[in-house]
Amino acid sequence: MAVLEELRITGLGVIEDTTLPLTGGMNVITGETGAGKTMVVTGLGLLLGGRADAGRVRADPGRAVVEGRLRLVGASGAVVRERVVDAGGEPDEDDVLLLSRTVTAEGRSRAHIGGRSMPVSVLSEIGAQVVAVHGQSDQLRLLRPAEQRASLDRFAGADHDKLLAAMRETYGRWRQISDDLADRRRNARERNQEADLLRLGLDEITRVDPQPGEEDALKAEAQRLEHAEGLRTAAQLAALALAGGTEPADDTPDATGLLGTARRSLEAQAGVDPALGELAARLTEAATLVGDVAAELSGYLAALDADPQRLQVVYERRMALRGLTRKYADDVNGVISWAERARSRLAELDTSDELLDELDRERARLADEVAELAARVSAARRQAAARFAELVSVELAGLAMPHARIEVAVLARPAGRGEPTLTVDGVDAGVGPDGADEVELRLLAHPGAPPLPLQRGASGGELSRVMLAIEVVFAGAGGPPTLVFDEVDAGVGGQAAVEIGRRLARLARSHQVLVVTHLPQVAAFADRHLVVAKDTGGAVTTSGVRMVEDTDRARELARMLAGLPDSDLGLAHAEELLAVAARDRRG
After folding, report:
1. Alpha-helical regions (H) of 304-430
2. Which residues of 411-439 are buried (b: 16+ CB within 10 A; e: fewer)?
């Protein structure tokens, strides 16, 4: 899997300059409230293409810079490598990709990937492949029905994605045909009026029948006809000159004969001096060229037309073309283009009974197809819902909710909410591009309790664990190799906190996990523990990150437990937590 090995943040919020060394397992970030833990997640979001907030940039130095080292291994690494190479970047030889994002205090943003400046959108694409960030805002989103449906669709897999894509494509065509048919019927009078005007123009253009480039050709022909006598005289004089005189009875040798005499004279001495041979060869070329010109002049004179009637025809044709260019375009080619557009527009304006009947049949056919696809999507969702609910319930049992269960209800979307209505599986339902279903996650907190929607049946701590259980299920079904959890354990304590830590540690066996937490029970399970500490000794408050191990780590856990890092009781409790976590990892 692709692994983020290092994250450096400069000039962001309270963080002046700090580096986070990350491991491939479970990384936790702890610290006092307000120390800047959230800035770490904000920096990671910036590095992976998130929205830049100039208000987070420190006044000195006036810009925030986030840099990262991403090791490209596994399938996700191969996908990222291909995208970067396509964009013009280049990973290092040791399969490390360097990422950088700079945001100024004025809000300007720049991105560099693999040593090249690139659009921030490329960072976003890499981020989507590598990292999934989950915070308390994600828990709130999970309460929305649309997010619950999206979560189920995400779980259902690749075949379901293809089915949804077919549904959206067919739905789009159905709505396009339906809207087109309704518009033709509703605006028939206006369409007919516009069509009549277009037909008048097309009839006029068709009668004239302009051809591409005809305007220039007629102009040139008119000029030749107007000056026919002068052109004839010039061509005749030139032909006579090439023939050896200015009068037909002259006995003077023609130009070709004279050139031949010169050539033969030079060739006779070419053996003495090769330079004369070269000149003779050039005279041969000249004789050929003169012969060609003489032949073309003869053809020109034969074709030269001085017919006054033809000149009148050309004048009339040019006048007809000018009439078109005054009305429809600047030149003849533009008139031809106008006619093509007019024919296309006439097809769009058609309100004939035949076309309306044809559109109506196509609309009905597509409606049937949409209804059939919506039924297949619903069936696939119900099948996925049973598996999804079972897997999430199993995870909840491991998160100190042994008697809780999740139900996933797939319900027909009620008709009459502004969406088109179709009969799907024998029920009238509102249909959208994503099908005809509403999805609702319900929590049964304990045996005998009624299943309630998450927004009504889950406390803050329960919602945190449901969210984590869902993410664990998603992780098992694929997805990004790096998972970031930003204080998703809010409202949790005691045994539930220990179980969350244990589950995150198990998740870290197959994923890189980065957890921002205030719970020592969670932090004890980390493979690497990073502490954000605030420094208030200077004129400006700053924060930095340091890695803690052994005794320092126990003292940090004691601070989290009791608020006193040197408390004997707190240290003993911290060491016990670390021992429990170590035994669990070995097991």
Report:
1. 308-327, 332-349, 353-397
2. ebbebeeeeeebbbeeeebbbbebbbbbb
Average pLDDT, consecutive stretches of 10 residues, N- to C-terminus, the chain (587 residues) = 87 87 92 80 87 83 89 83 85 86 90 89 87 72 81 89 95 93 81 85 90 85 75 76 62 73 79 82 84 80 72 84 89 91 85 82 95 95 94 86 89 88 92 94 85 78 79 74 79 80 87 90 92 68 81 90 79 89 81
Secondary structure (3-state) at 179: helix
User: Three-state DSSP class for 204?
Assistant: helix
- On the CB side of 251, CA atoms within 13 Å amount to 0
What residues contact residue 579 under an 8 Å CB cut-off, 6+ apart?
none
Q: Is residue 75 within 8 Å of 36, Cβ to Cβ?
A: no
Alpha carbons 486 and 464: distance in angstroms, whole number: 11
pLDDT value for 250 = 56
> DSSP letters along 56-119, please?
GB-TTTSEEEEEEEEE--HHHHHHHHHHHHHTT----TTSEEEEEEEEETTS-EEEEETTEEE-
Token pair in block for residue 350: 């058609």
Q: Collapse the DSSP code of 153 into the 3-class scheme (helix H, G, I; strand E, B; otherwise coil) and give the result.
A: helix
pLDDT for 386 equals: 93
| Torsion sign (Cα): 90, 91, 92, 93 | negative
Closest alpha carbon to 375 in 407, 408, 409, 412: 412
435: DSSP letter:
B
Question: Helix, strand or coil for residue 189?
Answer: helix
d(CA 126, CA 47): 10
Q: How many residues does the chain have?
A: 587
What is the amino acid identity at position 476?
A: G
Pairing of strands 482-486, 131-135: parallel
* Distance in angstroms (rounded) separating the CA atoms of residues 574 and 587: 20
Residue 27 structure tokens: 């990384």
Look up the pTM and report it: 0.63
Distance of CA 18 to the CA centre of its chain: 33
Q: Which amino acid is at 321?
A: L
Start-to-end Cα distance in the chain: 24
Residue 471 confidence (pLDDT): 78
Tell me which long-range contacts 423-430 makes (C-beta under 8 A, separation of at least 24).
Answer: 423/371, 424/371, 424/374, 424/375, 424/378, 425/375, 425/378, 429/374
Q: What does residue 519 show for φ and ψ, rounded to 5 degrees?
A: -100, 120
